[in-house]
Amino acid sequence: MFGSTPLPQSEMTPFHPRSPYAASKCAAHWYTVNYCKAYGLFACNGILFNHESPQRGENWKITRAGFAGDYVEAMWMMLQQEKRDDYVVATEESYTVEEFLEVAFGYVGLNWRYFRPAEVDYLKGDASKAKNVLGWKPKLGFEKLVKMMVDEDIELAKREKVLVDAVYMDAQQQPREFGTSYLWWLCLKGLRCSWDGYRFFTS
């Protein structure tokens, strides 16, 4: 929604969408504001910066990560106010994919070599209003979030019986593509893993 705008981005920062997806989010924001003013509806806009949880699928990246559970709590707190308003919800911290890999791989004692550079403008949310008005603040820090996601991936990999029965046996014979749920299991089994910027492979 903010695109290329000065840091940090708050509720007062003008929107500058740089994709159809971002433009659609801005439109939804203004639909909500206009209907509230026209019909007296009680509805709030949460301008949510990136958030993650162990339920995230395999195609993800981390740059401005907060815990989804903390963000949902902020949504609930918005709806408990006497007056509707719009809020930026953010951890006010930013991390690169490289930093995510350092924490994630370090947590299980592994080294990493490849990382994908950032694709979008650097964004940093100013959640002062949510903190001052709602009394909200994120409870789960970046490192704990990363470790939670790694633990979930490891448990998921353990449950992937198809990996044990089929993939591991022929992984030495030809390169195969895997999602992150397989990554930790493969590395812990001693296979050589690499990342091409989009996917993990073994060979």
TrEMBL record:
Q: Which InterPro entries match?
A: GDP_Man_deHydtase, NAD(P)-bd_dom, NAD(P)-bd_dom_sf
Single biological process term from Gene Ontology: GDP-L-fucose biosynthetic process
The keyword NAD is assigned to this record: no
Q: Name one GO molecular function term.
A: GDP-mannose 4,6-dehydratase activity
* First-tier enzyme category under EC: lyase
Alphabetic keyword roster = Lyase
Gene3D superfamilies, from UniProt? NAD(P)-binding Rossmann-like Domain, UDP-galactose 4-epimerase, domain 1
* EC nos: 4.2.1.47
Residue ranges of domain NAD(P)-binding in the record: 1-60, 66-149
Co-factor requirement: NADP(+)
Question: Family per UniProt?
Answer: Belongs to the NAD(P)-dependent epimerase/dehydratase family. GDP-mannose 4,6-dehydratase subfamily.
Q: What is this protein called?
A: GDP-mannose 4,6-dehydratase
